Amino acid sequence: MAKNLTIKPKAGKGLLSPFEELSPFYAFRREMDRLFDNFFRGFDIEPFRGTEEFFNPSVDVVDNDKEIKVTAELPGLDEKDIEVSIAEDSLTIKGEKKKEKEEKGKNYHRTERTYGSFSRTIPLPVEVETDKAEATFKKGVLTIVMPKSAKALKETKKIPIKGQ
């Protein structure tokens, strides 16, 4: 005669058995669940849910023959909200993002305010002339051009490549 077995999770443990916890398929599923949770976190799916925003601007650094050019995407900011500074071997971009959203409907009134600051420090690959650096801001894109110092230009040497 066969007995029906019921497995109950121990207190404080998850719902998975030790075998399931070690299985690569369950690890894959947990990772996919985490990815989907992170992906949908930024969307306002539920109408009255508060959302936390984390702002970390995308930055591109281009090293040309005579200058270093840094481009940062800063949508929704004004130039007065941004601070740029150069130290000996690094460039720092700081800013504060402020957003206020008000929505009114027949039976509700919703106001959201989001504030957050960011700071990105980019190491510079060569010495630059800090007094000749220029920054421009247009349509949410910050562009910083820093000419290389005479010393950095002098130390740059192209090495020819020989084919075999």
**Class of secondary structure makeup:** alpha+beta
Largest sheet entry: 4 strands, antiparallel
- DSSP summary: helix tally: 3
The name of the CATH topology of the largest domain is Immunoglobulin-like
Shape: flat
**Percentage of β-strand residues:** 35-45%
Level-1 CATH class name of the largest domain = Mainly Beta
Termini Cα gap: 79 Å
The number of strands is 7
Order of helices and strands: HHEEEEEEEH
For the largest sheet, list the strands in their spatial order: 1-2-7-6
- Average predicted local confidence, pLDDT: 77
Number of domains: 2
The radius of gyration over CA amounts to: 26 Å
Q: Unreliable stretches, pLDDT < 50, 5 or more residues?
A: 1-14, 45-53
Task: Specify the CATH architecture of the largest domain.
Answer: Sandwich
Helix content: 10-25%
Tell me what the structure shows.
The protein is α+β, with helices and mostly antiparallel strands. Helix content is 18%, strand content 36%. The chain folds into two domains: 16-44; 59-155, Immunoglobulin-like, CATH 2.60.40.790. Strands 1-2-7-6 form a four-stranded antiparallel beta sheet, with no helix packed on it. Strands 3-4-5 form a three-stranded antiparallel beta sheet, with no helix packed on it. Strand 6 and strand 7 (141-147) form a beta hairpin. The longest helix is centred in the first third of the chain and has 18 residues, at 24-41. Residues 1-14 and 45-53 have low confidence and may be disordered.
